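thread: overnight batch results

M.L. [08:02]
morning all. the overnight job finished for the chain we discussed friday. pasting input first so we're all looking at the same thing
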Amino acid sequence: MKILIFLFFILFSTSCEVIDEEPVFSDDLAFEFDAGDELDSLLPEPEPCYYPESSNSLLYSEIFPEVSWLEAFDGDRNELTIHLSDQYCGTSEENGIPHYDSIVLAIGTGWCPYCPDYMRYVDSLSEDLEENNAMIIYTELQTEFQTFASSEYAYDYINNLGITSGYRVGDADSWPFENFLSNSSDIISYPTGFVIRTRDMKIIANQRDSAYYLDFRSITAGISED
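M.L. [08:03]
and the structure it wrote out:
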């Protein structure tokens, strides 16, 4: 009887022993779950953005043509790409350029005797234009030798005038048509300029319609609110 009780005690002690070991899981049961991918799949695709249809006219109230400058510079000679469609679609920051409510396009040539004063006039308004969230693009169409101007030429020309504001582009680097502005019959004299409202890309001011310098300050004021 004592032997049976002893055996029972041994068996009971063994069955109640606590195993202090880490649990082991089979690799076959492991899986990964990326919540971000799952959520992205549930979000609707963004609507595509299409530039407004343009007749390529540069007259007042027309849609400014969908022009890009594949090489452009800021005042510190940082090379950029400027697509007007980015301003319309709100995607300009992908190319390192803020979104603006309007664009002041100041246009001149290297042989035009009145163009330096016009460019300096626009530059003198740069602080007010920045406050109005207006983008300044200084655009050179031709060199002093009447050859088509590149953006590198535009950079040197504008900076030699002591101008530090805005961007510089040359018509030779315009896309999809090289020298698009130079070949436009709607530009009849130099210097000239435009104001483009970016929410619909309409030309809301054209220098050819005025005998005096456009008042870019007042034209660009309040565009985001009108």
